[in-house]
């Protein structure tokens, strides 16, 4: 077994508490699109209802899922325009209010100081948004240019659970799956990493107390080899993966 030397980190609600802010912005735009396209929503989306349904998917993935469900027309040009608008709306919200996930900054500092690990971000979100997020909370110094986006970095945009973005990141970093560990908070992200052959640590810290136990089950079923409730547990989780215990 290769020694783990690379930590691949999801961004939204893994590094930064962005999910609620982002979904708030998304919901406003999706309701506007639904009205413009005469989509018969039972009730308008809120940030919260959108999270329940689409956590881990990027905006492009959400729009295409909704289009499939309601059968409304959407040209490629319209899709690209909406994707751009959503980025602007969300980035403005993130720049205003974004904070790190509790405890993650200490862990990143320690990992960087050890010099033992390559750190990279692997996200479904657009590169511009991920960059704005890590810049805002002061994490960009840990990653340099090693930020990979399923929406932006690939020849054909995709979204987790497609493993393409993890495969792309490993290729660019020159790493094999057994040299890597991924940290993910969503079902789609966990599936993406697992399908790329990477052992995934499932992180449930940002979920509300009532949802947390359910998410432990969801992430475990999606392939997470170990569950982390708080970033203070990361070192222990990584050691167990490294020793081949999980």
Automatic annotation (TrEMBL):
<dbReference type="InterPro" id="IPR023198">
    <property type="entry name" value="PGP-like_dom2"/>
</dbReference>
<dbReference type="InterPro" id="IPR036412">
    <property type="entry name" value="HAD-like_sf"/>
</dbReference>
<dbReference type="InterPro" id="IPR044999">
    <property type="entry name" value="CbbY-like"/>
</dbReference>
<dbReference type="GO" id="GO:0016791">
    <property type="term" value="F:phosphatase activity"/>
</dbReference>
<protein>
    <recommendedName>
        <fullName>HAD-like protein</fullName>
    </recommendedName>
</protein>
<dbReference type="InterPro" id="IPR006439">
    <property type="entry name" value="HAD-SF_hydro_IA"/>
</dbReference>
<dbReference type="InterPro" id="IPR023214">
    <property type="entry name" value="HAD_sf"/>
</dbReference>
<dbReference type="Pfam" id="PF00702">
    <property type="entry name" value="Hydrolase"/>
</dbReference>
